[in-house]
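User: I'm putting together notes for a lab meeting next week and I want to include a structural view of one of the chains we've been expressing. I don't have a solved structure, so I'd like a prediction I can at least talk through. The sequence is below, exactly as it appears in our construct file.
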Amino acid sequence: MRYVLGTAAIVAGVCMSSAAFAETYVVKEVRSPILACYQQVYVPATVKYNTRGKLVKSQSVGWVVTGDRWEKVRSPAVYFETAKTVEPDHYKLVPCK
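Assistant: Thanks for the context. Below is the predicted structure for the 97-residue chain, given as structure tokens.
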């Protein structure tokens, strides 16, 4: 137990002595009157498009008859395209280089 207390006392003494000898210094520097510089950058809106937004007409299969020829045809579905704004357009400030 004495060795542990003795070791702790030595470590504490070393820490306190190094703090006592810590160096402080003063540096003179010229500061600019401009505290911050930023450039304005335009960010366009982010828009999500859905090509199959609203269904107008569903797909179908039918027959086309021309004279004595019968052809089976497929009509694909018809949709209105929809758009949703994910992020509106805005400006951001970027630090000057």
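A couple of points you could mention at the meeting. The first strand starts at residue 38 and ends at 43. Residues 2-20 form the longest helix (19 residues).

User: Perfect, that's what I needed.
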